[in-house]
Amino acid sequence: MKTVLALILTVLVLWQGMIWALGLPPFLLPSPQSVAQALWLNRAEIARHAGYTLTEVVLGFVIGSALGAALAVAMGFSARLTSLLRPLLTFSQTIPVFALAPILTLWLGFDMAPKIAMTVLIVFFPVCSAFLDGLGRTPQAALDLAQVMGASRGRIMRHLRIPAALPQLATGLRLAAVYAPIGAVIGEWVGGARGLGALMIHANGRMKTDLVFAALLVLSVLTVIFARSVALAVARIWRRYGV
Amino acid sequence: MTVSLRGQAWVGDAVLFAPVDLVLETGGWTCLLGPSGVGKSTILRLIAGLETGVRFQGQVSHDLPVALMAQDAGLIPWLDVPGNVTLGARLRGDAVDLDRARDLIALVGLADRADSLPANLSGGQRQRVALARTLFEDRPLVLLDEPFSALDARTRAQMQDLAARLLAGRTVLLVTHDPPEAARLGDRILLLRETGLTEWNAPAARIPGTARPYDAPEVLALQAELMRGMMA
After folding, report:
1. Do B87 and A159 touch (CB under 8 A)?
2. Deepest of A42, B67, B194, B229, by most Cβ within 10 A of its Cβ?
3. Cβ contacts of B84 on chain A, cutoff 8 Å
């Protein structure tokens, strides 16, 4: 905690020092003080937008993780499906998600749907890929035993492969939680008037750089809190398995 | 009710083992002794119906349900001792008889460690859990793939005594590279070498339910003889 405070203080000092040293105008780089002021003066508006963004992030994260985990399990069952879908999944990651945002807005409108879809797209891959990796790493000794014991593929999946892959799934979820807000914000940049992304674009257009910074700050804090909560929740659930 | 394996196996184009004709007599311990890399475990896995990664030409026939115990105890890290012992029932979707599991855990001498996770057990204790799990399966044919190889000498001897006692009456195939182990436990000893499978002269009969004494002169003599056989 002490180091975090020291770090924040250092950043603030460097920030303010740069403004003084270079004589930057506020519309290029607002001072920490004016950002704090913008944050306070627009607190109600920022909170409303933040709530909107958070809803998108949570929904997108839940849907994206569920889809990613489900596909990983399906692929875990079938080597053929895996060899079919793996290259497709990798290929999908070569498409910059930024390029998809306008298309999603075109298809899904200006409400929450395209932002959630964007988040789902970003969350899906790390969860699916990490979980699939874990599902393929059940110790051979356990799989041999299960086969000799006369276990069905479904029960092997449920009792051995999935629990053995939980650490990898946790890694995927923690990673996805950090990226999820990026998806929502990209969606908000492109269309609609609500959410921190929309607020930033709007404020940027009116040269209200202090408000952009304030929204950015709230977004960062939100992301840290969200990622931390996911990590804690995951650790808590896993502890029951002793993993 | 016989268990037999006849055939030959290749890894790629290289012969893994020359044609073998292996018939297990029911109700006794057959030791398959040999150095590493001659295909002992492959034979066991073929009988168990497991993936081997080799090309096998021949046939395996038996109609006995099998239980397996290997060098890697294969314990599930997130399950406690009763959880591991009853794994088979859970994997088959059968009702889990915890009372029977507890009796077996007491039988292998782990009653006071029942709450432990595998990570908190010693190597010998882990193999005791594996033995209880094997007993819980209650199968007539038990396949042992070097189950005691990773243990220290004293623990290994103790586990041999325990296994001989608790698996009495079942048909056991023990794969081992350790001549003393074969000398203690085998009712029949089969030597697998690059040249093929040889049946060793039957050792003196064993008192049922016990391993031969590790320090008896005839056991030490047999062990030396088997070692000479392996070196030949």
Report:
1. yes
2. B67
3. none
Q: Does residue B163 lie within any of the structural domains? A: yes
Q: Residue B69 has which token pair?
A: 């115990």
Q: What is the pLDDT of residues B84-99, one digit of tens each?
A: 999 999 999 999 999 9
Cβ <8 Å between B49 and A148: yes
Q: Does B74 contact chain A (CB < 8 Å)?
A: yes
B16: in domain = no
Predicted ipTM? 0.89
CATH code of B165's domain: 3.40.50.300
* Interval B205-228: pLDDT, tens: 889 899 999 999 999 999 999 999
The answer to whether B128 touches B116, Cβ cutoff 8 Å, is no
Which residues have CB under 8 Å from A102's CB, separation 6+? A190, A191
Question: Measured between CA atoms, how close is B59 to chain A, in angstroms?
Answer: 18
Inspect the interface and report whether the beta carbons of A141 and B74 lie closer than 8 Å.
yes
Pairwise CB contact (< 8 Å): A241 & B78: yes
B48 touches chain A (CB under 8 A): yes
Question: Which positions in chain B touch A165 (Cβ < 8 Å)?
Answer: none
DSSP H helices in B28-152? 40-48, 81-85, 87-92, 98-107, 123-137
